[in-house]
Design goal:
two-stranded antiparallel ribbon, alpha+beta, single chain
Length: 92
C-alpha cells in the first residue's frame, strides 16, 4: 500500500476495485487502521480523513471539548462587568 507522500506499508495485500458511482476514493481495512491513528472530521460540511503511522498521541474529542469549554469560561470571566447589587441593607 502506498500513500501520496511515498510512505509504504510492506507485505500488505490490496485489492483494486472500480468505483462506478464516484462517491468514494479509497477503501482500507481495520488491519491498516490499527497500525496508526485514524480520524474523520467534517468541519463546514467538508469531510477530511487523517491517518498516520506510527501512533504518536491519543485522539480524544470529548476531552478536547471539555478543555476548550474550561478555557472559554476562564477567558469570559474577565470580560463580564459586574452589576452592582441594588439590595437594601437590613435594619437591625
Amino acid at each position: 500500500m502506498f500513500r501520496e507522500d511515498n510512505f509504504v506499508i510492506p507485505s500488505t495485500v490490496v485489492t483494486e476495485c472500480v468505483n462506478t458511482r464516484g462517491d468514494w476514493s479509497l477503501i482500507f481495512g481495520i488491519d491498516i487502521i490499527t497500525r496508526g491513528d485514524f480520524a474523520i472530521t467534517n468541519k463546514g460540511g467538508k469531510s477530511k480523513v487523517s491517518f498516520r503511522i506510527t501512533s504518536i498521541a491519543d485522539i480524544d474529542f470529548l476531552k478536547e471539548d471539555k478543555v476548550a469549554m474550561i478555557k472559554a469560561k476562564h477567558l469570559n470571566k474577565g470580560s463580564k462587568k459586574s452589576i452592582p447589587s441594588k439590595r437594601r441593607k437590613k435594619k437591625r
